[in-house]
Design a protein that fits this description.
alpha+beta
């Protein structure tokens, strides 16, 4: 969100919630000699911060890739256009590990190297619920993000799958809304309004630092809110990091590795002195194609879109929704959505968000079709937090306000807010589901077949 007020000078003042760098895919970076990767961390006090992980000359990355090639199962490291993972059999294998007082293996933790969910199938004869998609070997980049060693796309993670399944657990009736938001407090917005009234209408270039510091101080810390999933999970961290980076791109604070229209590029003065700009991610709810027999689902397209709306800031710092978006904001969100696939191929965290949205929609489909009762699988181990703890991250609570100033026109733009909102079941609503007109989903499902998998085998090509 942005609150814009106008001065007689030519100052465009931007107040961001974050300060994160953006760079190309980790493997591409390091192969070209770029020294490290960016990420975020949440400290013990719950404050979200930028973290840069140095990798001079890419040596750490090269070492990890070499180790992965030497240590991983030669079959799992081999790229596959369509690897299959039986969720029932995977859980049984995880249970066997736990019974030996051992954690899930790396193959289990990274779902045999899957980098996308393309299909979900149910097989009535064998009672298997199967995820299928492209896969390859994997290794961690300097920031600890686990990516495919061939494509650089992030691997799907067992912990995210578990979070998604728990959100749509057997017997659960209420559909969760998964969300994150980074917002200024009402008190901070009220103090900001008071500060701006005190500044007056006549400012000079020499006043820029004073205004930046005043806005940062008056707004104070921004609050972080996570809903639908535990905030201390990897899934929540991914959503928050994507929200961070998106805002910086829109405000022109970080240059993305792909060409797109930023909000700053198109921002023009308006007559509304108390409008806040809100940008937030949602799934593309027209991204699901379902087989006629309802035994298969395909995820199509890029799954993620960015949308915007205006809000009004009242004198007490409260906000009310206008349901509108200005032209510059609209152009930015449309450009970001159009470039999302390209951006995700260069910045792994955006591909990670697409992955977690895929998993939540897949989990919602399993629940909607009642595959749990049809298969007799209750995912009891995956749904037991005592057996598998996925809340292993510090809980994010706040982030510092970060300001910057750019001369452009005669407008002052202040806080940006927004976040991520995911309604997985909306993607499965009748009016949004795409038909499988040529029967390809059923054709793929029937062509796979489980055959006679060896005991303990839970994935195959």
């Amino acid at each position: 969100m942005r609150c814009r007020l106008y001065f007689s000078s030519l100052l465009l003042l931007l107040v961001s919630l974050v300060g994160i760098g953006i760079g190309p895919n980790a493997w591409a970076q390091n192969q070209q000699g770029v020294s490290g990767a960016n990420g975020v961390m949440v400290d013990a006090d719950g404050v979200l911060r930028l973290q840069h992980y140095a990798d001079p000359n890419g040596q750490l990355t090269k070492k990890r890739v070499a180790e992965a090639r030497a240590q991983l199962n030669p079959q799992v490291i081999k790229p596959s256009k369509l690897r299959k993972v039986s969720l029932n059999r995977l859980e049984a294998a995880v249970r066997a590990q736990l019974d030996k007082n051992s954690p899930p293996t790396d193959e289990m933790q990274f779902l045999a190297g899957l980098t996308r969910v393309r299909y979900l199938f149910y097989y009535p004869d064998t009672k298997d619920i199967v995820l299928a998609g492209p896969a390859e070997g994997w290794a961690a980049d300097p920031a600890g993000r686990v990516c495919g060693i061939e494509s650089g796309r992030p691997a799907l993670q067992l912990q995210d799958l578990i979070v998604a399944l728990r959100a749509f657990a057997p017997g659960e009736r209420q559909a969760p809304v998964i969300l994150c938001s980074i917002d200024p407090t009402p008190e901070g917005l009220s103090r900001m309004q008071q500060f701006l009234r005190g500044v007056g209408s006549q400012i000079q270039p020499g006043d820029t630092e004073m205004i930046v510091n005043g806005l940062r101080t008056s707004l104070g810390m921004q609050n972080i809110r996570v809903g639908g999933v535990a905030p201390s999970t990897h899934m929540a961290q991914v959503l928050l990091e994507c929200d961070y980076r998106m805002k910086l791109i829109g405000m022109g604070l970080e240059k993305p590795p792909v060409r797109m229209v930023s909000y700053v590029d198109r921002a023009t003065p308006s007559n509304n002195r108390s409008a806040l700009q809100r940008w937030f991610f949602t799934p593309d709810y027209n991204s699901v194609r379902v087989a006629a027999d309802r035994l298969g689902m395909e995820l199509v397209g890029d799954v993620v879109k960015l949308v915007s709306e205006d809000q009004i800031v009242n004198k007490d710092g409260s906000r009310s929704v206008t349901g509108k978006a200005n032209k510059a904001s609209d152009l930015f969100t449309k450009s970001f959505t159009a470039k999302y696939a390209e951006l995700a191929s260069r910045v792994p965290v955006f591909a990670e968000m697409r992955n977690v949205i895929d998993l939540t929609i897949a989990a919602a489909f399993i629940h909607q079709q009642d595959f749990y009762s049809q298969s007799g699988w209750q995912a009891s181990t995956f749904n037991d937090p005592r057996a598998l703890d996925v809340q292993t991250y510090n809980t994010p609570l706040q982030v510092e306000t970060v300001c910057t100033a750019v001369w452009k026109g005669n407008q002052l733009l202040t806080p940006v807010s927004g976040g991520v909102t995911i309604h997985p079941r909306t993607a499965l609503a009748t009016q949004n589901v795409l038909p499988d007109e040529d029967g390809k989903i059923s054709e793929v499902r029937e062509s796979i077949g489980l055959g006679e998998l060896p005991a303990g085998q839970w994935w195959w090509d």
